[in-house]
Amino acid sequence: MRRPTHEVKIGKLRIGGQNKVAVQSMTTCSTMDTEGCVEQCIRIIDAGADLVRLTTQGTREAENLRNIKAGLIARGYGDTPLCADVHFNPNVADVAATIVEKVRINPGNYVDPARQFKHLEYTDEEYQQELKRLDDRFCGFLSICREHGTAIRIGVNHGSLSDRIMSRYGDTPAGIVESCMEFLRICEREHFPNVVVSIKASNTVVMVQSVRLLCKEMEKEGMDYPLHLGVTEAGEGEDGRLKSAVGIGSLLIDGIGDTIRVSLSEEPECEIPVAQSILQAARVQMCKPEFISCPGCGRTLYDLQDTIRRIKAAVEAKAKVDVRYKTLKIGIMGCIVNGPGEMADADYGYVGAARGKVSLYKNKECIEKNVPEAEAVERLIAFIDKDLDSNS
């Protein structure tokens, strides 16, 4: 069961509530490079992203978001919202909020100074004074966002907790969560609901523990903000994909998460298919055909790997022109011993029956026995076509 949240409006995009889990990525070129950012945004959007984030270091970069947005509109990509990523300078967040649909701020450095890894001693009164300073500055930002219909992401990073939080709570999930809750309590008091929340860490265990604790703390205080999930600095290649799948997937399976980003040290558009695959593996959203196949064993009497390649090619080609194929699960099993049972989750199946012979299935029902292997892939596709048409 998905964790209940309220809906947040980000331009034409809706996050939370009953909306699908949104996928996003972030540009890597300089935000002063207008054409470079436009091109990168287009590649990200074409890959399937619902939102694009851009780093916004200073006021110049914030102002140039206007030119990037105009470039995207001119190219026909104006419906995808942009998010400004702001650190260290709340004045930049103020400017960005007048231009783009969403602004991300980092509680660790929004008003607190850059982290120096120093232990700070506060009396309770001094600590409350620091919170008052945060409160005063953040309320001004909320007023600008309210005026312009701008959404906010309160994005906590484990690696950038302020010295103030670290000194009082230590390097703990409790401290990570409190860093976020300080801002959320202000949003609640000011009746500003257009907020998405994230807690990220490069350590998947810390990330998962902290997000689960945040959910509990929000529930205690009657909050239901949507959550953005990600393992920050996940890396590249197989390592980055595995860490992201473990961290994000663990929470999605619990019903937690309304938007995700897979942070890879690769071209940003490479993140989107990985995110979609994680959503599918967690059974949150079917984004493409899924293939359930056994590893093969001594009972397998046909070339399993070659057959998988041929079936995937045929089904994926169909999915490009027929949307009904995008949600199909196809089982490809080496033998009759365990095949029908192990692929019970599949819509259609291909199971080795004897040397050179294959049986075809719909769900758990055998629809054709002892099909010559040379004809089996084509017969399977023909049956799927006919079956889908009959149910249309």
> How many helical stretches?
12
Label the structural class.
alpha/beta
Instruction: Predict the CATH topology of the largest domain.
Output: TIM Barrel
The CATH homology group name of the largest domain: Dihydropteroate synthase-like
- The helix content is 40-55%
CATH architecture annotation name of the largest domain: Alpha-Beta Barrel
Mean pLDDT: 94
Unreliable residue stretches: none
List the strand order in the largest sheet: 3-4-5-6-7-8-9-10
Terminal Cα span: 29 Å
Radius of gyration: 25 Å
- The CATH class assignment of the largest domain is Alpha Beta
Overall number of strands: 15
> What's the helix-strand series?
EEEHEHEHEHEHHEHEHEHEHEHEEEH
Inertia-based shape:
elongated
How many discrete structural domains? 2
Described by strand count, sense and barrel closure, the largest sheet is:
8 strands, parallel, barrel
In terms of DSSP E residues, the strand content is: 15-25%
Which helices and strands occur, and which strands form pairs?
Blueprint: E1 8-10, E2 13-15, E3 22-26, H1 34-46, E4 51-55, H2 59-74, E5 82-86, H3 90-96, E6 102-105, H4 124-148, E7 151-157, H5 163-169, H6 173-189, E8 195-200, H7 204-220, E9 227-229, H8 237-253, E10 259-260, H9 271-281, E11 290-293, H10 304-321, E12 329-333, H11 339-342, E13 348-354, E14 357-362, E15 365-372, H12 373-390
Parallel strand pairs: 3-4, 3-10, 4-5, 5-6, 6-7, 7-8, 8-9, 9-10, 11-12, 12-13
Antiparallel strand pairs: 1-2, 13-14, 14-15
Describe this structure in words.
With 392 residues, this protein is α/β, with parallel strands linked by helices. The chain has two domains: 8-281, Dihydropteroate synthase-like (TIM Barrel); 290-390, Sulfite Reductase Hemoprotein, domain 1, CATH 3.30.413. It contains twelve helices and 15 strands. The protein has helices spanning 34-46, 59-74, 90-96, 124-148, 163-169, 173-189, 204-220, 237-253, 271-281, 304-321, 339-342, 373-390; strands at residues 8-10, 13-15, 22-26, 51-55, 82-86, 102-105, 151-157, 195-200, 227-229, 259-260, 290-293, 329-333, 348-354, 357-362, 365-372. Helix 10 (304-321) links the parallel strand 11 (290-293) and strand 12 (329-333). Helix 7 (204-220) runs parallel beside helix 8. The longest helix has 25 residues, at 124-148. The protein starts with 7 loop residues before the first strand and ends with a helix.
